[in-house]
Amino acid sequence: xxxxxxxxxxxxxxxxxxxxxxxxxxxxxxxxxxxxxxxxxxxxxxxxxxxxxxxxxxxxxxxxxxxxxxxxxxxxxxxxxxxxxxxxxxxxxxxxxxxxxxxxxxxxxxxxxxxxxxxxxxxxxxxxxxxxxxxxxxxxxxxxxxxxxxxxxxxxxxxxxxxxxxxxxxxxxxxxxxxxxxxxxxxxxxxxxxxxxxxxxxxxxxxxxxxxxxxxxxxxxxxxxxxxxxxxxxxxxxxxxxxxxxxxxxxxxxxxxxxxxxxxxxxxxxxxxxxxxxxxxxxxxxxxxxxxxxxxxxxxxxxxxxxxxxxxxxxxxxxxxxxxxxxxxxxxxxxxxxxxxxxxxxxxxxxxxxxxxxxxxxxxxxxxxxxxxxxxxxxxxxxxxxxxxxxxxxxxxxxxxxxxxxxxxxxxxxxxxxxxxxxxxxxxxxxxxxxxxxxxxxxxxxxxxxxxxxxxxxxxxxxxxxxxxxxxxxxxxxxxxxxxxxxxxxxxxxxxxxxxxxxxxxxxxxxxxxxxxxxxxxxxxxxxxxxxxxxxxxxxxxxxxxxxxxxxxxxxxxxxxxxxxxxxxxxxxxxxxxxxxxxxxxxxxxxxxxxxxxxxxxxxxxxxxxxxxxxxxxxxxxxxxxxxxxxxxxxxxxxxxxxxxxxxxxxxxxxxxxxxxxxxxxxxxxxxxxxxxxxxxxxxxxxxxxxxxxxxxxxxxxxxxxxxxxxxxxxxxxxxxxxxxxxxxxxxxxxxxxxxxxxxxxxxxxxxxxxxxxxxxxxxxxxxxxxxxxxxxxxxxxxxxxxxxxxxxxxxxxxxx
Length: 801
Hints:
Blueprint: E1 12-16, H1 20-42, H2 50-71, E2 76-80, H3 85-88, E3 95-101, H4 109-120, E4 129-135, H5 140-162, H6 170-173, H7 185-205, E5 231-236, E6 250-255, H8 266-277, H9 283-294, E7 306-307, E8 313-315, H10 319-326, E9 331-336, E10 340-341, H11 346-354, E11 364-368, E12 372-373, H12 379-393, E13 405-408, H13 409-412, H14 428-434, H15 439-444, H16 448-458, H17 472-478, H18 502-512, E14 516-519, E15 527-529, H19 536-554, H20 570-580, H21 586-602, H22 611-633, H23 638-667, E16 675-676, H24 717-734, H25 737-742, H26 751-763, H27 765-770, H28 781-798
Parallel strand pairs: 3-4, 3-9, 4-6, 11-14, 12-15
Antiparallel strand pairs: 1-2, 5-6, 7-16, 9-13, 10-15, 11-13
Helix pairs in contact: 1-2, 1-22, 2-20, 2-21, 4-5, 5-7, 8-10, 9-28, 10-17, 19-23, 21-23, 21-24, 21-26, 22-23, 24-26, 24-28
């Protein structure tokens, strides 16, 4: 209960940023883009078809920049004051924390263990917390690791709270050694805790099947990742806790039932289980498949364990159901298994927004913290959050990004803003409708216990049960594969299905019902995670994101739908349109990378001297300086800016190209989209430590190292093809190919196109270097041969006879 006295200071404030100068820059660039389009239209009849292609590409770029300008117009964020909570709130609400994992090989158990330990040690009353780990791989190794982690947590949590340790993930805290001369109680406790963590790490990394003799592992016998019954294990129960610093929160392991040939809906399905239980391509690229068939290889794949077409959402939904039966906390935090808590007060910071009186005047449905990373592979992602994230936060609120987000349970249960009265309580009309006979059972399933927990959640009550072990059997029931059939789970309730980007899908559903969201970006970052190293693994992840966004763009939750009858603000809808269209950028970006080379070879002018060339040069200069300023303003280097620009072009012309292919085949009913679990690693570096600010770690495959791992998969064919085509055009230009064409009636192209070709080659620098390197940083002969063949065809079709 919060004190609503108006004389007390606010628990948070909304900070709006003024950006008059940047607005003028955005508008100037937008004006230049429209001027370029107008110039193309006025001179279209005097040029060949290449201008039509250029006009279409530039029209798409103009539309995207228009959307970005609208999104960034009014940036904002919320600043919490957690130190004021104690004087304003007499009793803190309960919070259920969800961690999802799916593969003990690609998501090492020691990584999951560190994330869980950081959650168990947050600065919040332990008797008000419950941590649920949803293991979609049904791995006894993961369960064994969590049991061992629980034993270590009895040492780690009191140590963190006694000495107010800031970084509460042991693998990061113990990176640096302690001063050998220091002899104090802290140093002795530090050494002892480190030894215990090293023992834990050794047990997890060297674990064998010794647990088979343990009766506690009987449930894992004869199980397969995609074929097993529901498993619910209470690893630790906080019995009669009063929030003492030595206490541990409830700790529960969950693995939902999975059967072959059943849809499991990705991460969202498992999250929904937790919440309620415990609570196309151009002609040249079509030839690629023919070339691959010659080599008897359609695609170079890595050993894969992957979710089926919809299992990730189910991971989330089933988490919601389990927690609803066991603890039914009014607020829920979900984090990825590799995103540890870096700010111990993160829960208190989120509560500052939810508990502000009068009753949540902005009707905040969730609080999103930005995703930051302790490695150096995510500079561009951080920039996007810093500018676009704050821009969206200044409209109707940030977009749910899948991790580091606090949700309100009643909103996840499908509550609309219209269901509340002026005081923020459930209105009488909504109460009558929801409590009508059979209504909740039709929406939430046949379990009476689930219906009861839903009623309590909508009324703002936590689960009154004192012993969560009493709910284990009921929790297993709602984890059944058949439970969600003919219910609203994944449709209007919980995390929404029908896309790999279940977070964006769910976010659209929430904002469409009139709710807002809040963006908190503390310093130090609240959560830190790892990004896959630059190369094949990162390409898989980028394709997955692009495919998921396109699924959102074309499914029932599309931001294009409900334009006039939903409660989402217009600019918020533009933000969703911009994000969900990311994958569509691949085609215009690919063509625009090839057009200058085509014009050099074809001897036609893409950027004629005069006004058109002036506009292009001004746009390139302004955009480069603008984006460079954005990077340097948040502390990144010029090299980081250059590498990020390069990576953006690579993902746009390669990964997202295959995202379009994925979504096309799905829409035509030819194939289904699968979610591949990307490899996650813990870097063995000593670049940060305990209470020092987190520093970026070089994997040896990071942008700062200038290395880019390449293999024989098709992801690397478009980039190689682009580099070879532009090199061929440059070579032809300088050896006199243009002069030969002019003698046969060419129109005359010039230096501008050649300079743009050089710029394209510089942007695709990793592929240029790959031509001269061997091993994992060099382009494989199979990829190079295909690219050379496509380049030869391109040159033949481009050169004017």
